[in-house]
Amino acid sequence: METLDEKANGAPPMDIDEPVSVRDHEAFAAKNMPDLGHDVKEFKVFTWKLTGWKKLDKKLTSSEFDCGGHRWRILLFPFGNSNAPPNDTVSVYLDYADPKRAPEGWHACAQFALVISNPHDPTIYTVSHAHHRFIAEECDWGFTRFSELRKLFTIQEGHSRPTIEDECADVSVFVRVLEDPTGVLWHNFVNYDSKKETGYVGLKNQGATCYMNSLLQSLFCTRYFRKAVYEIPTEEERPTESVALALQRVFYHLQTSDQPVGTTELTKSFGWTSLDSFLQHDVQEFNRVLQDKLESKMKGTKAEGAIAKLFVGKMKSYIKCVNVDFESSRIEEFNDLQLNVKGMKNLYDSFRDYVAVETLNGENKYQAEGYGLQDAKKGIIFQSFPPVLHLQLKRFEYDVQRDAMVKINDRHEFPFEIDLSEFLDETADRSKPWVYKLHGVLVHSGDLHGGHYFACIKPDAASRWLKFDDDRVTPVTDREVLEENYGGEILNGVPPTLQRNQVRSMKRFSNAYMLVYIREAVMDEVLPPFKEEDTPAHLKRRLDEERLQVEAKRREREEQHLFLTAKVITDETFSHHEGFDLASFDEKNWPPSELPTFRVLKTETYNVFKARVAQHFNYPENQIRLWVLVNRQNKTVRPDTHIPENEPTLTVDVIRNNMAARQTDLRLYLDVIPDLSKPELPQGTIMVFLKHFDTSKQTLHGIGKCYAQRNAKIGDLVPTINERMRWTPGTPLKLYEEIKPGMIELMKPKLTFSQSEIQDGDVICFQVDLSEKEIHDLEIQGLYSNPIQFYDFLQNRVMIVFRPKIDSDHDAPEFSLVLSKKQTYDTMAVKVAEYLRDLKRSLNQSIAEIISPSYTSPSTTVILYEKLDVSIVELETKRSLKVIWTGIHNREESTHTFLLPKTSMVHELADHLSKQVTLSTNGQGSGKIRVFEVSKDGKTQKEFTGSEMIGNIPDPVELYAEEIPWEELEADDADKVISVFHFSKEVQRTHGVPFKFVVKPGERFADTKKRLQARIGASDKDFARFRFALIQAVTFKQPSYIEDDDNIYEHKFAPEDVLGLDHVDKSGKTRTGTGEKAIVIRG
Questions:
Q1: Helix or strand run (H / E) with residue 776
Q2: Which InterPro entries match (predicted)?
Q3: I need a surface site. Which of 249, 706, 758, 1074 has the fewest CB within 10 A?
């Protein structure tokens, strides 16, 4: 029984202030059923008359009625259903009649009101309303606690009679079955299949990559772009290192997969870490960086020029004199347009604002070359729009009062179709209409500090609108595309005319921030039908192979319970093993041994399995026997007994369960029979394993096995060992028993194996007997003189990976050392110093304390190190500072590191720097050095006076230094020294290093530019692409771009006003505002 509490969904039972009759169906529905904004398929009212209420059954249903093509009925529990306290409530529901006969996958979206009313006075009633998507799993919906019985049987305040009178009442239901054009209205999305419902699949969100997902889906649906990406040659590339290949793979999976597609491979190809996937970035910046990267990959291929062809338009900036025939203009390309939202009613207004003409007159007249000061018109006009037009709506702006960025949630309308011809220059090509159709709406839901991104896209002219929301794709209505993304105010989702009580208006926090329009005249070219041959054959082949591998692994996982793993120790693997037992299996601080491994069906017979093993190791079957290793109580893993050869029905699963019950896998020792004429061992024979501790090499390795009689003496092993090691007969040895970790004991040679309690699979370690002097010489070097000490080291050993703290330090390698947890930091430092000369001092902790606690359980520990150029003692009294030298031409030339006493002054730092850099010799520089920081916004220098003590400079700090130009030192009172910074398209996207520049009175900007070019040492080719703008801090306006005939000296510079150089950043070091991380794509 699906239930609904009226307080949670819908209105509570209502006290009636204005009498409305239940029998006045339209008025009653208007009062009690708010308009939900959906088209109504059919409206029906059904009334069920009841008498003898107190004698009614506990559960009863009304007769059925039709509404909206479905059969319905009322389900009533006159005294409450089983979930409610008995006899004190009424439970009533709208029930879908006979859902089993309905077609598979049926659903019905209904809004309804359930009413119990007085049969004699229909203005006395109790009502509750709700809405629900009726499906097979939820085929009834209503109110468990519709009303208390006593309230229905008693006269309530304001009424003259009770609702249930003389045990009679009318139970009515008002039903609106609603149209569901998308098929997903009020869907719970349990078992929802995007591919089946829409033909498309979503993208998985890695943490905060919804902004990227929405753009990628838009680009994927731009089929000309997808085809161009596929044309980039990537056969020899790796997906985690190549953006082009990784994007091709994402697009192919979006085409072919029936499950949401992952983007981890793609972000790895960008060079991003998992942390980058949890940072939201600006979509516009991400789009630009991605397209720049792809454009460079397309050069020299079939796809070259595709991005410019699709996304690049042209605009003209001009100043035209009113009274004389003079015009100054320049043509620029654009990939997207940023349009104002604040103060704009709709998209047309935003375009009109963009091309609005500014009049230059009065004190602001234009200095026209050859004509003097003139009244003029200044503005922008478009020469052409690209086939695919990306419009960035400026939802995020700087608020002067708050001194912060804010989100603009104002209402801003945009149409399905827009004619942009009125914004074109009169010289533009008008042979085809400039009508654009809406193709995509990228939406941000939330505020400045976070939120969610999704996209509404119409993949082609014949398709319906779809909502791409991370891993889910659903159909949407036109209202959901337009009205719900305009922004502005809403009245709790209900039109004001139908509000019972006026409620406060609420801002919509979901609104469009990027629009994609496609020119109607080239729609077929931009969105052509996608053909099989458009997908590169190598990509299809590669991904199909990977899909088969994934499928095979999946099948392997599913069938895992049918198999077990058998690991086989051989004399060869034993000879390479350095540790306890015959191999490492489950040691906490040491990786397991690499052993030959077999995947075996549990039902496979031992004879079949043995034949496989013999074939693998190239032995005749009758020359091997397999011993099962067991977990002994003392925590060792040793061969216990060999598997019987005379039971043909014995399976590997039975062997594992009966002979090695406490193990998940089967661990075996391959015993090669040395003499086939004697396959069976004599009675009383035991098999022991020998290890040699070599004091000179400080190693412990397996030598193999040997057979001995239980009643033989331990000392009888000495000649056997000397012969096997090819030592001189009679070489004195010491023998030790490896009982368990932490218990290694010297053996008595005169005792027998039986007296020493030696059994099959035991390990005996031997070493050459040393003199007292040899022992002393070893121990004074910190080396181990016997196996007991070495086994103690093995028990406490840990492999530590040492990695340079600074990734870019090419002189510092990554390496690993095996150390004992009992050793100290100083001992570790000495060991590391064999690779490196110095390590920063720390408390002399033990290594066990340094690597603990380990919250994960890796088999290796990683320690970061830093290679220093000075002793540790010297470092503690001095300050290490890194200075980036930008020379006389404002470019990062070199980096210099200094270690100076903390009491040194900044001017002393400048003196040291002057001895390491080359100052200018062309007369442009003064020979004096300025040391400075860059302000957080990247627009100005924070200059040091020179008298600051370097120990007092806050850490961390990024210091810059430059040679001060003569021009600045010689500037007189009439000159102005201003700040200049570099940015790319938006003033927030700063890059490079800001610098100071002298502005001279009466100088045309054309001449100022020549001095600027000389100041930064830019080539004519590069400098031709620069644009120049005044940025005023007071108004925080958009950049005010400067023309050649302007005179910027006349601008009244406030302290924060700066000159901006707008040009492409080639450094990859773009800043995007305080605390934000620039988007970098490396692959």
A1: helix 772-780
A2: MATH/TRAF_dom, Papain-like_cys_pep_sf, Peptidase_C19, Peptidase_C19_UCH, TRAF-like, USP, USP7_ICP0-binding_dom, USP_C
A3: 1074
Secondary structure class of 586 (helix, strand, coil): coil
Which whole number is the average pLDDT over 347-356? 94
* Secondary structure of 347-398 in HEC code, one letter for each residue: HHHHHHHHCCCEEECHHHCEEECCCEEECEEEEEEEEECCCEEEEEEECEEE
Distance CA 259, CA 265 (A): 16
pLDDT, tens digit, 9 for 90 and up, residues 618-673: 999 999 999 999 988 888 899 988 899 888 789 999 988 888 877 788 999 999 98
Instruction: Give CA separation, 5 vs 76, 128, 132, in Å.
Output: 15, 10, 13
Alpha-carbon distance of 718 to 733, in angstroms, equals 7
Strands 376-384 and 65-67, how do they pair?
Answer: unpaired
- Rounded to an integer, what distance in angstroms lies between the CA atom of residue 825 and that of residue 849? 10
Q: How many CB atoms lie within 10 A of CB 983?
A: 25
Q: Are 690 and 705 in contact (CB under 8 A)?
A: yes
3-state secondary structure of 792: helix
709 has pLDDT over 90: yes
- Are 765 and 691 within 8 A, CB to CB? yes
For the chain, state the CA radius of gyration: 41
* Annotation marks residue 210 as catalytic: yes
Strands 685-694 and 763-768 come out as parallel
Which run of H or of E encompasses 40? strand 40-50
For 355-371, what is the mean pLDDT? 86
Q: Which of 109, 139, 210, 321 is catalytic?
A: 210
- Cβ partners under 8 Å of residue 397, min gap 6: 342, 405, 406, 408
Query: HEC string of 94-124?
Result: EEECCHHHCCCCCCEEEEEEEEEECCCCCCC
CB 366 within 8 A of CB 488: no
Task: Compute the CA torsion angle 274, 279, 283, 288 (nearest 10 deg).
Answer: -60
- Estimate the crossing angle of helix 283-298 against helix 243-256, to 10 degrees: 110
Nearest to 1028 by CA among 976, 1066, 981: 981
**Catalytic member of 452, 701, 896, 1051:** 452
Tokens, residue 682: 């004599």
Using left for φ > 0, alpha for ψ between -120 and 50, and beta otherwise, residue 132 falls in beta
Going by C-alpha positions, the residue among 1035, 1057, 1056 that lies closest to residue 1048 is 1057
Q: Using DSSP, state whether 127 is helix, strand or coil.
A: strand
Determine contact, residues 365/373, Cβ cutoff 8 Å: yes
* Nearest CA among 248, 255, 47, 10 for reference residue 141: 10
What's the helix, strand, coil split of the chain in %, to 5? 25, 35, 45
3 state SS of 677: coil
Neighbours of 405 (CB within 10 A): 14
How many CB atoms are located within 10 Å of the residue 927 CB? 12
CA–CA distances in Å: residue 940 to residues 281, 851, 1014, 1057:
25, 45, 20, 10
**What are the residues whose beta carbons fall under 8 Å from the beta carbon of 1040, sequence distance 6 or more?**
1029, 1030, 1031, 1032
What confidence tier does 1069 reach under pLDDT thresholds 50, 70, 90? low
